[in-house]
Amino acid sequence: MARPLRLGVNIDHVATLRNARGTSYPDPVRAARIAAQAGAQNITAHLREDRRHIVDDDIARLMDEVELPLNMEMAATEEMLAIAARHRPYAVCLVPEKREERTTEGGLDVVGQANSLREAIAQLSAAGSRVSLFIEPDSKQVREAMTLGASAVELHTGAYCDARLAEGDANRAEAELDRIHAAAEEAEELGVECHAGHGLTYDTVGAIAAVPNIVELNIGHFLIGEAVFTGLETAIQRMRAAMDAGRARAPEAAT
Ligand SMILES: CC(=O)[C@@H](O)[C@H](O)COP(=O)(O)O
Ligand SMILES: NCC(=O)COP(=O)(O)O
Question: Which of 26, 55, 169, 196 ranks highest by number of CB atoms within 10 Å?
Fold first, then answer.
């Protein structure tokens, strides 16, 4: 039987909409409560250094007012480490950040930043948070994540989703999916829990859910966009159904 696959709902882009007008609505905490009703297992929120969407008060309220565990995405900076130490979220996902980028364009260079990441992982783990590293599906990065003591890796699915959306690029999509399968299998062999996310839609989630070693998906931007048309609860339920359909096609995990 296929193993369980958790859904983390990323509510960043509720805050993007709120901040576009400088109002107090729409409220990411309200979105998080709806996600809970719709069956999500955790809430993901990315506190960017430039606070372009989620702000400090959102993190405080998500911790205090929402029952679901918080997976806080952040860069491994001193400022963010101090914030995480104050709130002690259930999980922290360390991500790369570039001020000019439109979204998180790639994974962390875990190999190149090993020393600073080792220290950040140690601090966060000592404070009681599970630490994952947001990486490209690449064997070197997976192995280094294990060496540094990360509990989990989250594989960046953006390249796969982009290839699926690009007409006539089936070969590239297939190659990206192969990389994700290989990295997920290696992570599990090394004892590192495997998550995935970025850019997933109803059309692309099935193939990722079918990767048997992946146990958590984090999905946001598409869901918040769909919520405009169908409501957030319905959007999340449809995503859950698409995930379940994909998972039902997953072979048994090799390990
Ligand atoms: C880290 C990541 O995958 C992002 O999807 C993020 O959580 C959404 O925020 P940005 O679109 O601002 O990167
Ligand atoms: N880490 C990925 C995430 O939280 C959601 O990414 P997206 O669905 O907003 O692209």
Answer: 196
- 122 token code pair: 């140690």
What percent of the chain clears pLDDT 70, i.e. is strictly above it? Answer: 99
Q: What average pLDDT score do residues 229-252 get?
A: 96
**How many structural domains are present in the chain?**
1
Encode pLDDT of 80-90 as tens digits.
999 999 999 99
Cα separation of 172 and 223, whole Å? 25
Residues in contact with ligand 1 by the CB-under-6-Å rule are: 10, 12, 46, 48, 73, 95, 103-104, 134, 197-198, 220
77 is written with which tokens? 């900076």
Would residue 253 count as lying in a domain? no
In this structure, what token pair is assigned to residue 103? Answer: 């979204």
Q: Is 48 annotated as a binding residue?
A: yes
Q: Is residue 24 a part of any domain in this protein? A: yes
Token output for 148: 């540094």
Domain assignment present for 203: yes
The interface predicted TM-score (ipTM) is: 0.94
Structure-token pair, residue 138: 């690449």
Structural domain containing residue 178: 6-248
Q: What is the pLDDT of residue 254?
A: 61
Residue 189 maps to which CATH number? 3.20.20.70
